[in-house]
Design a protein that fits this description.
Blueprint: E1 10-15, E2 20-23, E3 26-28, H1 35-46, E4 50-55, E5 67-70, H2 74-84, E6 90-93, E7 100-101, E8 121-122, H3 126-130, E9 139-146, H4 150-160, E10 165-170, E11 182-188, E12 193-200, H5 201-225
Parallel strand pairs: 1-4, 1-6, 4-5, 6-9, 9-10
Antiparallel strand pairs: 2-3, 7-8, 10-11, 11-12
The structure holds cytidine-5'-triphosphate.
Cytidine-5'-triphosphate binds at residues 14, 74, 93, 95, 97, 99, 123, 125-127, 142-145, 157.
Amino acid sequence: MPRRHTAFVNILVTAGPTREPLDPVRFISNRSSGKMGYEMAAAFAHAGHTVLLVSGPTALDVPDHVDFLPVETAAEMYEAVANHLGRMEVAVFAAAVADYTATAAPQKIKKSTDTFTLELVKTRDILGSARTTLGFAGTLIGFAAETENLEANAREKLTRKGCNLIIANDVSKSGIGFDSDQNEVIMVHPDHTEALPLASKHDLAHQLVQAILEIHFSASFLKTSN
Ligand code: CTP
């Protein structure tokens, strides 16, 4: 029987893709629809919590009762998170942040050569900076989209990024994950792994939100009872 939580907390959710401009008309992005993050933001708000949704460009409506901060690039998402993380108790990083960005040309790039090489530079890892550079001490949740070794890769990210939970899915399976209304994930905790069966992103978001609040409130209980 799920425990009822009486305290309301501040929760930051990142969602959607980022867009890294190449010139005034082109950008690099990815297939993230933002649905999983938006559903989770909506489910936290529905449970009475105060939610800030930091989102890259998506086609989705902003959920009711959710504060919204739209961003475009990975650098803008980093700044938005850095500005707000200090007042959050829970942070959920569902965004598919670009790992590399380009220096955007000021004018449209012309097709003057037969081949064209782009030099890309690594972006800052926002989730990976939360515990270190940004000093976040709250409940930290990451996502991992993998095409192989799902659990092992997710567990490595859990440790490397200092997370309390990684929600991982296999993006090589068709019909789930990116651009789909359904998803099938595993929850990788520090001491065990739990598989959630295929479900709509809406239903899954409610299960994940419940699990995250359990983690958050049992950690808070441990801190206050010590
Ligand atoms: N993430 C982030 N900032 C980045 C890259 C990733 O905040 N610049 C977050 C994502 O929101 C997600 C988690 O890190 O919660 C894992 O993202 P993923 O792209 O799977 O991991 P990477 O660390 O980029 O590792 P790799 O791409 O090498 O698998």
